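Chain A, query sequence.
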Amino acid sequence: MAMTRAVGLMLALGMVAGTALRGDEAKPVTGDLKAIQGTWAYTDGEGRENRWVFDGDKLKAMVGGQEYTTTVKLDSKGKPEPTIDFKITQATNDSAGQTSVGIYKLDGDKFTICVTLPGRTIRPTKFETVEDEQYLFKMKRAK
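Chain A, predicted structure.
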């Protein structure tokens, strides 16, 4: 019995140490990234409800009928607006591996993002849609 506990403890410690050595520990969620945690929703021009779910530095989103999983990076001190980058890790289209760059405004339960199409590298400077270049999303926190 004591030997079984000792082996179990060694395995548990080994997994914890392995995680720390690999850098798999969770990154702290602070600032605006903490403020956007949870579900945000909006209705698109075709009447479809779209949901964006932020969990740590990950996002699962439905945009125009396409599903995306991304890693999120925020810079609340970006100029002239705070910046947001989405590194697409999974998508129902061919955009996996690409990045969308954008700007954002966070005002309580309102979250506005203007972001480029995946792969475009010129960050938006205004909160406006420019067809085939950048899109504006005005979301509210889902209840």
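Confidence is low (pLDDT under 50) at residues 1-22. The chain has one domain: 28-141.
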